[in-house]
Amino acid sequence: MIEPNWALTRKRTLLQQRAAILQNIRAFFIEQGYLEVETPHRIPANAPEPHIDAVPSGDWALHTSPELAMKRLLAAGHEKIFQICRVWREGELGRYHLPEFSLLEWYRSGIDYHDLMTECTALFQSIIPVGKITRSGREIPLTAPWEELTVAEAFSSYASMSLEQALETDSFEEVLTAEVEPKLGKAGPTFLTEYPAAMAALARIKPDDPCVAERFELYIDGLELANAFSELTDPREQRKRFTADEARRRAAGKTPYPLPENFLNDLSAMPRAAGVALGLDRLVMLITDTEKIADVVAFTPDEL
């Protein structure tokens, strides 16, 4: 008798839990009147983000996010849409990272990032009705309201330098990842808000404070789960930001990317809106009290 692959067999319970979580997520959005959509995974151009590299696919690339296509649907009049899909990012592999992973993204017209915080809270309350998760023997309550902490406040509390110093020395991402993120969401979920304007390539700038963008990230137990913002709808400003980001990529010796012209053309028709991307594999990790992202997916690259 041929022995089964026990490494895969041992994942059965976690994969069953994962399936139930995804089914509950779909049920939540359908109940809220969202339309589930599917957009192409292979596209001519991603957003040219300096710190994210796409996986080539011929002359095109695999998408790093369904964001651009979903916003084009918003611009075409689809008011409430969500998608669960696979995305690819070159070189991301570790305890919390995979080069191919699952994202939940949802977009809604007529709202801003504050409304998305409310929807995030409602989503978690729906799919985790016990109102708490357990991490390594510690209970983390999910009861509302969730903490809201600005990036400047977080740097003041947890970093070895101020936000201004981090921006001046081009060490914002490094300090955020190493010093700030591990402290967030320990006593309950934390919305990290008011990102510096330079760190929000597709987000709307706050009208009463041009130094920050209407963006938040969601953290639980030191782990980033979601990235969200009020959407920038000015095609000229968006082109300007994309061009600046592409220049940064080229200065760093990275592969040049074309600008997503069809997205930029449709952006002028996009209504006021907000959207969020939530890492599903990490969410499953948290709910199932699992320490490695590899344990909550059927296969990792080294298992293929």
Walk me through what this model shows.
There is one protein chain. The protein is of the alpha+beta class and 304 residues long. Helix content is 34%, strand content 23%. Strands 1-5-6-13-12-11-10-9 form an eight-stranded mixed β-sheet, sandwiched between helices. Helix 8 runs antiparallel to helix 9 (261-267). The radius of gyration is 19 Å and the shape is globular. The two termini are 23 Å apart.
Strand and helix order = HHEEEEHEEHEEEHHHEEEHHEH
Walk across the major sheet and give the strand order. 1-5-6-13-12-11-10-9
Backbone shape: globular
Mean pLDDT across residues: 96
What characterizes the major β-sheet?
8 strands, mixed
Q: What count of helical segments does DSSP give?
A: 10
Strand content: 15-25%
Number of strands: 13
Which structural class do you get from the secondary structure elements?
Answer: alpha+beta
Gyration radius from CA atoms, angstroms: 19 Å
Uncertain parts = none
Distance between the termini: 23 Å
In helices, the fraction of residues equals: 25-40%
Strand and helix map with partners:
Blueprint: H1 6-9, H2 12-31, E1 35-36, E2 42-43, E3 56-57, E4 60-62, H3 67-75, E5 80-88, E6 100-109, H4 113-127, E7 132-135, E8 138-141, E9 147-150, H5 151-158, H6 163-168, H7 172-180, E10 190-196, E11 212-220, E12 223-230, H8 235-251, H9 261-267, E13 273-279, H10 280-287
Question: What characteristics describe this protein?
Answer:
three-stranded antiparallel sheet; eight-stranded mixed sheet; single chain; alpha+beta
Short account of what is shown:
With 304 residues, the chain is of the alpha+beta class.
